[in-house]
Amino acid sequence: LIAGGLRWRDAGSADAWRSVVRNRDDVPESAELELDDAAESRYVSRGGLKLEGALVAAGIDVRGRHCLDVGQSTGGFTDCLLQHDAAHVVGVDVGHGQLHARIRDDARVTAIEQVNARALGADDLFGAEDSDDGDESDRRTDFDLVVADLSFISLTLVLPALVPFLAPRGDMLMLVKPQFELQPGQVGKGGIVRDPALYAVVETRLREACAVLDLRVVRWLDSPIAGGDGNREFFIHAVHAVHAEGAGGHPGDANAPSAEF
Q: Of 8, 100, 211, 238, whose CB count within 10 A is highest?
């Protein structure tokens, strides 16, 4: 992100942008962040930049990992995982024909389309494949890293279907879009969440949903960039509770600070 021209200024101010030049530069948690056009073009979508920042903040090393990308869409998250040396990415999306050609044609990618993540099962992923063909890694049902970028559905409805795919010592890193976690009356015109107090409501709700599924929330992070509609977004990093210590290469810490850029 630093190499990509990360800049910040106090949220809501008209001050000049300040460049981030070192990992240890102090960036306020409430700061407004911006990336230059060169950074925006590194991945097939802005989602790649969001995930990159979250991976750094969570201390998750993607190298050699087998990953599940839920809500693959054009492939921004998948692109980020591949550029950080993931061994293989299985992508799932309810749509069809959205995946960028560069990602679709990568031998490390298996794209599963027209599958609803809420009811995801192993048969949905690989039931139609001949078990004698293809790389065995294409048919894994336990993943070292599960990531998700979903819209128009609450993560609380999707998590129960995803937990069975998380390896015992795997990491789950989910993009949180508050407008889809709240009741319609809590979201303003245009789908914008205007009351900052509601962010805590969303966090509490998702932490509780994870606890019910025996997941421990290791970190709750600000997304390094806002959503395309201007909404503030977050990432939730969770692991199986029994294996929480050492998640992502760092001790489990449910109150870890936001991303350091």
A: 238
Tokens 């599924």 -> residue: 213
Q: Which two tokens stand for residue 245?
A: 């210590």
In terms of domains, do 58 and 12 share one? no
Which of 125, 124, 117 has the alpha carbon at shortest distance from 156?
A: 117
In the predicted model, what is the mean pLDDT of residues 122-132? 60
How far is the C-alpha of 140 from the C-alpha of 136, rounded, in Å?
7
Specify the DSSP element, H or E, that contains 126: helix 122-126
pTM: 0.77
Number of other CB atoms surrounding residue 128 within 10 Å: 8
Q: Nearest 10 degrees: CA dihedral of 139, 143, 145, 147?
A: 60
Q: What are phi and psi of 176, to 5 degrees?
A: -105, 120
Residue type at 100 in one-letter notation: H
Order of all β-strands in the sheet with 32-34:
18-19, 7-9, 32-34
Domain housing 136:
46-249
Same domain? 71 vs 31: no
User: Contact 178/202 with Cβ under 8 angstroms?
Assistant: yes
* CA nearest to 143, candidates 198, 81, 205: 81
Give the pLDDT confidence score for residue 185 in this predicted structure. Answer: 74
Per-residue pLDDT tens over the stretch 11-47: 666 666 666 655 666 767 667 666 655 555 788 888 9
